[in-house]
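User: I'll paste a sequence; please echo it back and then give the predicted structure.

Assistant: Echoing your sequence first, then the prediction.
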Amino acid sequence: MQQPILSTSRLTLRNLNEKDAGFINRLYNTDGFLQFIGDKNIRSPIDAAVYLRSTLLPMHNVPLMGLLAVQLKNHEPIGVCGLIDRDNLDGIDLGFGFFPEYHGQGYAKEAAMAVLEMAKDSLALTEVVAITLETNKRCLKLLKHLGFQKAKAAHPEPEVMLLKLKL
């Protein structure tokens, strides 16, 4: 069993690994993920394994960075949440996505709060950003509840919003 990076009262957050291919395949093909985050061309567990190796796992080369598997205490994965250093953003991005059956139960908020606390305490970050589509009302509500505020940013797609949080 892989050691958790973070733990809350209901969740553990751990680094992703190659055994997560089936989980990533399922998560990245949910309607919400495809609509609001984008199609990563993952159509099978094999595609997910390739994506893990090429994109997600290398993020963990920097300690405490990258998307983390969010799982219930029974080890069932329910989503991802973590810090991403994106080339096209000025700042570290808080990213997250959860299976729809776990929406509205406070899991995303709980995971995000743990990641933000780690960003402040362990990484000494003073600011975190988040990007989302204006139409992603659920995400916007969570980000605003966490204290993120809309920031002015030049973005090629007008429907994309940048939000910032001072830690």
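The helical segments are 21-27, 31-36, 45-56, 107-121, 137-145. The longest strand covers residues 77-85.
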